[in-house]
Every structure is written in structure tokens, then in C-alpha cells.
Amino acid sequence: MTSTTTRRAPRPSFRCTECGWTAPKWQGQCRECREWGTLEEASSPTGGPSGAPSLPITPVVPPAEPARPIGEVSAEEARARSTGVEELDRVLGGGIVPGAVVLLAGEPGVGKSTLLLDVAARSAAAARARDEGPVLYATGEESASQVRLRAERIDALDPDLLLASVTELGALLGHVEEASPSMLVVDSVQTIASTQVEGSAGGVNQVRAVAGALIAVAKERSLPVLLVGHVTKDGGIAGPRVLEHLVDVVTHFEGDRHARLRLLRAVKNRYGPTDEVGCFDLGERGITGLADPSGLFLSASRSQVPGTCATVTLEGRRPVPVEVQALVAATGAGSPRRTTSGVEHSRVAMALAVLSARVRVDTSSSDVYVSTVGGARAVEPATDLAVTLAVVSAARGLPTSPGLVALGEVGLTGEVRATVGIQRRLAEAARLGFDRALVPLAGSQELRPVPGVQVLPVSHVGEALGAALPQG
Questions:
Q1: Which of 102, 145, 313, 404 can pair with 249 through a Cys bridge, CB separation 3.0 to 4.6 Å?
Q2: Is 111 known as a binding-site position?
Q3: What's the rounded mean pLDDT across residues 105-129?
Q4: Which CATH number goes with the domain that contains 143?
């Protein structure tokens, strides 16, 4: 009696050409990158009766050099070097490591190319002082003349800054071989394509191949590489997710295009922390680092005008002062407006409800506008108390006490809850000249004295109002 084995046909799978996400059946929209019409059928090859793919046998290759004890490995090659931009060095963890590949992502027009062009010029000057090779800036989005005009505008012209307009991977690697640079900047990785790989520039296979080749060159030559990356409509990095896993550092450059402030955050860093934030000021003459961004977020008249209250937020580990402004005006319509900018709308609505129910400050017949100064974002719970005081100050027409800063989360019962980083926030407030600080009562016993700052612990919104608005 003979038996026959029926081999099952491979099940078709569908892969997104933009991000690489796979699905067992066709769908109109990719669930990963939310793009439409990008799923294409790709059947998996089978290598045995069970349908499992056959894996190639990897031959044993003698190592180029034997493994050494860890104590004999030199750590000098992994020392970070300054890029010449202190705020970027802060985010990277002291500078860029030779052989590291850094991905800088951000929305169009946020200033990615301007920042890296300035970094390239400063690094070229530093490399010349160390008697090292030039810096190579490869642009695939603009012509060399356009980049030259931007360099003139931001004063980023340096004789050791080499510029190449290239969109083909082989030509880019040829420039690297010929120039032997000390740093490589690629703007952007989605515009470079390899003739050895199918697909258009920016596709899954192309981005993977280009990134892999550049990473191999970086490790082989100990060459630091800075890559510019595009983002999708949802704010994620365009291309396959493997790109973020291949590179050593992933940073996001963000900011409102209508404001001057730009923030640089590290979401992945193999050589440093991921909770540091760099602040930049984007102006007509280029982009500059802000070691002290308080001038953008605090107005000179904050202690004389009703409806203002200062607070200190934490961007990573960095304390950033923020001024909250509120305006309460009689409404002419049946439904009052609630408009916010820079603060979380839901938390403002909760603060208004707490004021109405707990301290009898009724804004149900008034329009309420709450905003921050300079385009800053105050979305963490520690800013609740400042928002609450600013609204009451505007409603009563009484300015808050001069030199006051408010820190704390406000609960639905009106209590002022403890928050993280109070000690660091107080130190920043003292540096800026604030002499009084409202802090949550819980945990205040553990705070160390801050010279020049009178700490006022409060447990309820009513206590905070009495301390901040003594006239009322």
C-alpha cells in the first residue's frame, strides 16, 4: 500500500512597500505606516515538505584577529568628540563617537538641514585643528548651489567642508573613498538609491541597503555618519522599522514652524542618555543653541499683569521655565469657548471644573483662553497649579505675587499632589531670580533648602490661592 504526501501550497503574504509590515491577506491600508495601496503580494519560498524555508549553511571563516581579553581592548577609539554645537553634544552624551551612525528625523521645514550644515562646518574647523580629514556633506534633495546659498546665510563656509550632490549609493561611496573624510553627513537617507537593489529611492529595500552600506563604511573606517530622515504624517520615521534598529543613535528634531524654538530629543542612544533635550533658536541667520532658553518663555511683565503664573517643566532631565497666561472674558454666545495653546486641553478643562466645584470660581459664563509664552509646551501634570492660578488671577483681575513660581499637580478633589524633580525645578527657579515657590506639601520635608527661594508647601488649591493672591 503506497501513501502519498500532499504538499501544501505556500500561503501568500502581503508586504508593505513603504515600511515592510506584513499581513496574511490584502488590505487597502497598511496598519503600521497608515499608507494606502502599498501592500503587495510576496509568497514565501519553501524548502521542505513541511513548508519551512530552507536556511543556507554558513561556512566557517577564520577570524581576522583572535579575540582579546577585555582589559586589553583600548577604549580611546570610543571616546566621544565634540561636534562644536553644545546642545547637540548634550543630547548625544558629550559628542559623537567615531564610527557611530546618528539618524536625525523631523518634519519638513523644521531645520534639520540647517542644523547639520552648521555642525558640518564646525566639525570641519575642529578636524583641521586636529590635522584630520575634511567633512563630506552629501545632499540628495538640493543642488550644491542651493546648499552653498544656505551656508552663506548661516555663516557655515569652511575650506575643509566638501559638498557633493549625489543620489546614487555607489557614487556616494566613491566620494568617501576619494575624500577620506573625518565625518559624513547624508541629507537624506531616503533620497539615496542603489542600482543593485530593486525599487525606487525611499522604498523598504532601498533604505535597508543604503543604511547597511553606510553603517558598514562607518564601522570599517571609524567614520561618524549623520543621516537625515523623513517622517510620516503620524510623526514616525519613514521607511522600514529596521532602520531605527541598525543605527546607533535616533534623534527627533521638533518644533512649531511658526515659533523659533526647536527641541532635539534622543529616543535611542547606545553611547549616552536618552532623557536629555537640546534647545535651539531658529532665526534668519541660522540656528543657534540655547544654553538658557528662559528668555523665550518668560515675559518681563509677568508679575504686574493679571492672568500670568510661572512654572518649571522638565524636558528629560532639563528644567525649562514656562510662563502660563490666561484670559477670562465675558462671552457673547450661549456656549463659552475654551481655547488652549501649548497646554493640554483636557487638563485645562479639569482645572476649570475643580475651580468651580472646590473654590467657587465659576467660569461657566465666560470664555477662557490659556496659552504659554514663546511656543513652549506645558503638558505635564506638574503645571496644573500654574494653570489654575493663572485662570483665577485673570478671573479676579489680580496679579500673582511678584517672583512666584508654582509647581504641582491638581487632583479632582482640589488637593495639590506631589510631582517629580521638585529639587531641580527649584534650583532653576532660583537661578532665574524667583524668590517664592508653591510646592506640594507631600514630600516637601525631604527638599533641601534653596538659597534665595522661600518654599511654601500647600496641600489644597484654596491654600495656593491664598498664598499667590494675597489681595483676594
A1: 102
A2: yes
A3: 92
A4: 3.40.50.300
Q: Is 268 annotated as a binding residue?
A: no
Mean pLDDT of 141-148: 92
For the cut 70, the answer to whether the pLDDT of residue 308 exceeds it is yes
Mind giving me the DSSP string for 22-59? EESS--SB-TTT--BS-EEE-PPP--STT-PPPPPPPP
In a domain, 58, yes or no: no
Residue 457 annotated as part of some ligand binding site: no
Check whether 108 is labelled as a binding-site residue: yes
Q: Which domain holds residue 345?
A: 295-468
Tell me whether residue 106 is annotated as binding: yes
Any binding-site annotation on 109? yes
Contacts of 246 (CB under 8 A, 6+ apart): 101, 211, 212, 215
> Which of 260, 291, 322 is the C-terminal boundary of a domain?
291
Range name among 50-59, 61-70, 102-111, 128-137 with the lowest pLDDT average: 50-59
Domain assignment present for 57: no
What type of residue sits at position 80?
A
Residue 2 has pLDDT above 70, yes or no: no
107 marked as part of a ligand binding site: yes
Q: What is the structure's pLDDT at 50? A: 47
The verdict on residue 446 lying in a domain is: yes
